[in-house]
Amino acid sequence: MKKLKRKELESYLQQVDGFENPKLVLEQYPTRPHIAACMLYTIHTTYDDIEDKLIADLGCGCGVLSIGAAMLGAGLCVGFDLDEDALEIFKANVEEFELTNVDMIQCNVCSLPSDKMLKRFDTVIMNPPFGTKYNKGLDMTFLKTALQIAREAVYSLHKTSTRENLDMTYQHHSSFIRRSRLISKWTSFAFLLVDF
Ligand SMILES: C[S@@+](CC[C@H](N)C(=O)[O-])C[C@H]1O[C@@H](n2cnc3c(N)ncnc32)[C@H](O)[C@@H]1O
């Protein structure tokens, strides 16, 4: 696979179709191509958590993160989302880019049997619902699931204002992940890296 530069990745991600009629209740706002490209490129080049890895994208929506990870050489990236309409667009995006290392599953991430999926994925990437108005606490449920199903690393975008809560969730549920955690500011988000 050709090595992509960050700018090239970003310009590919600009061609990914987004939500046609975003559902507020599901917090369907897409990750902007610039943020997605920066996040994925860092995960790939600094932490080596994409190439040949089995990756889960929780709340994948129309697939911008999964598609980016696939372009950077993921072994397989599996997207999980509740919404059939979003997954239809995701599927069309994958076909448009002719990617063979992407799959998707329609499901509620909160009901994933995380015991059966314990440590099944090398890496989890996600831009989860922020768990605001309609879905209080959903961001932490996604994080908890991610920490259970990941073998090596979890990368997740969150609102900076939830940092304290993130810290607590991480302390409670990170026993499966062995090493350090690093939080840094990413525009208006906290960018949480949990690496092995
Ligand atoms: C902030 S959007 C992110 C979409 C996409 N990952 C991206 O980065 O552009 C959150 C996604 O989570 C999905 N979602 C919300 N609640 C969910 C749940 N309980 N289970 C699975 N997916 C859910 C929404 O349908 C939406 O696609």
TrEMBL record:
InterPro entries named among the record's database cross-references:
DNA_methylase_N6_adenine_CS, rRNA_MeTrfase/Polyamine_Synth, SAM-dependent_MTases_sf, Small_mtfrase_dom
Identify the Pfam families for this entry: MTS
MF annotations from Gene Ontology:
nucleic acid binding; rRNA (adenine-N6-)-methyltransferase activity
SUPFAM superfamilies, per database record: S-adenosyl-L-methionine-dependent methyltransferases
Domain of life of the organism in this record? Eukaryota
**Methyltransferase small domain segment(s):** 51-146
**PROSITE patterns for this protein:** N6_MTASE
**Coiled coil region boundaries:** none
By sequence similarity, the record places it as follows: Belongs to the methyltransferase superfamily. PrmA family.
Under which name does UniProt file this protein? Methyltransferase-like protein 5
This chain's source organism reads Geotrypetes seraphini
Which gene is transcribed and translated to give this protein? Answer: METTL5
